[in-house]
Amino acid sequence: MTNAGVYPDTAAYNILIAGYGRSGKIKEAFHLFNEMKKRALEPSNHTYSSLLNACSNAGPPAKEYLLKIQEEMERRNVTLNGIATNAHLSAMASCRLHEEAFETYEKMSSQHLSPDLHTFGTLLQAASKDVRGGLEKAQRVWSEMTTRDDITPDALCYNLLLLCMREAGIPSSMRKPLPEAAKEEGEKEPRTRKVVSSPPRGVLAADAKEIATFALPSGHKIHLCLGKWGERWLTGEDTLGLLGAMKKAGLSPDVRTFNLLIGLAQDTECVLKAMEEAKIPPDRKFWIATIRSLALRGDIQGAKAILAKWELGEDQHAYQALAMGCVSMEDGLKLVEEMETSGIRPNEFVFGTLVGNAAKHRAFEYLTALLKVMKHKEIIPNATILQMLERAADNPPASPWQLKRHQGFKGYYTIWKTTMCPE
Length: 423
What we know:
Blueprint: H1 10-22, H2 26-38, H3 45-58, H4 63-75, H5 82-94, H6 98-107, H7 117-128, H8 134-146, H9 155-167, H10 180-183, E1 209-215, E2 221-226, E3 232-233, H11 236-248, H12 255-262, H13 268-277, H14 284-296, H15 300-309, H16 316-323, H17 329-341, H18 348-360, H19 364-377, H20 383-394, H21 400-420
Antiparallel strand pairs: 1-2, 2-3
Helix pairs in contact: 1-2, 1-3, 2-3, 3-4, 3-5, 5-6, 5-7, 6-7, 7-8, 7-9, 8-9, 9-12, 11-13, 12-13, 12-14, 14-15, 14-16, 16-18, 18-19, 18-20, 19-21, 20-21
């Protein structure tokens, strides 16, 4: 084009930038944008929308680019239209600028922009990734969306709602402390969890605490509860209520819906039956989510039965899900041994989950045992494991008996780190 003496105009640049943006090639997209400015071409809303979509598709690594384009828009006093604003929200959600996303949403009314279904879906996505107060944000977004006459949640919105219920952060004031049996590590290592049986439909477990309520367009209210180990629950009645609300709205749940539900429902049989009625065959992700759910409620044997029945024995993700329920040293080391017996070498993600459990319960003998196994098997720790170990080492307990175990862990960890992480 340029060889023939023909140079792209703004519309042509927009097409090229959008193409790079869709494929996540953010460097190329911004190179074209800079070239466009050098040629004194004025960027349009389409240009900024394409650049923001590029940031969204590239994810967290694009944060630096997103901040640059935000500075550019502010310097030029750019007013984005509705489409570009949604692209901006998507980029911030993808780059984990959660607070900024909600601040931008707040400004939409003053800019005479009306949020649409995409806006609310993006905000739910942002809330699901907010580890501090995402659940409260999700309640607010859902309430504002469902009380509008011009917007009806689609199937994706329901999936995002379930994702928020499972992943969004809970404010510290709402978090329940660990049971004393788990905290008193000075007396003994955390005990294996007792299997949590499903209560009657619509009845909460005795130790459950309601942490969020979501009103559905059907009139049913969903009550999200927190169990004593930090697991999140929906009763069988609420599970059916959500599926019923989708059906009433003419929406069909997909496999993603059931993958999310199985991780929340106290009544797993209720989910399996609904899935069968919807004629949706369970996939690998569904069974891994089932393993995760059973492990978190303490049913390690039930989770292992699923793993064996559906031949997931070679899937590291399945073992990582199983590791979530291994709160005791006995269960954790047994899982590693069983993986080795099956010919599976545990990876750093399985060990990361086990280390996370041990660190959360301040089980210093468990941590030390895991470090020894990692050293023996030459499992190189990733950044997440090292961060958890550093926090555990830098935060000694108050109890003298616990302090002795902590000192033993910290001493071994210091030596272990120089061997496993020489750099």
